[in-house]
Design goal:
single chain; mainly alpha; 8 helices
């Protein structure tokens, strides 16, 4: 029985190492001839089907190629949402803060404040806590306090 362990372990190791190349994703790159509308529509389509990494890549390309205008503003806000949905709360909050700092008079600033509160509220929730009930009194209150502050700001301003 022991003589089968070594070939089995070697075979599984080789299979697992060679399998890593199957999981590499292709690079998302907008063509140079694409207009701002086309890049935005591709990003929005990726966001709608929950392909958040692809949406983030398109939004970043849109911001890099067309940094001014309505599409850039909306791309910044939607990329914050995509970071939130892809479980990257720190980047989402940094993106929201940049949006609020660069576009303080944007009509969607209320959504930015709401999204910031939502990200802060769900910041300490890990993968395990999403599916297993937990005791909220054992949660670290720092992120909850930040969320409360953001929601209070939203109520006071709007």
């Amino acid at each position: 029985m022991k003589k089968y362990y070594l070939p089995l372990i070697i075979g599984l190791t080789c299979l697992s190492l060679s399998g890593c190349s199957f999981f590499q994703k292709e690079e998302v790159k907008a063509d140079e001839s694409w207009s701002v509308e086309r890049i935005y529509s591709e990003a929005k389509a990726a966001l709608d089907i929950a392909d958040y990494s692809k949406a983030i890549a398109y939004y970043e390309q849109l911001e890099a190629r067309f940094p001014f205008g309505e599409y850039a503003q909306q791309a910044l806000l939607e990329s914050a949402y995509a970071h939130y949905k892809s479980d990257d709360p720190e980047t989402a909050i940094a993106t929201i803060d940049r949006f609020m700092r660069v576009y303080p008079l944007n009509p969607n600033i209320d959504y930015a404040i709401y999204l910031r509160g939502l990200v802060n509220f769900h910041r300490d929730i890990g993968l395990l806590e999403k599916y297993i009930p937990r005791d909220e009194s054992q949660r670290d209150p720092g992120a909850a306090e930040d969320a409360l502050r953001d929601f209070n700001t939203l109520i006071q301003r709007f």
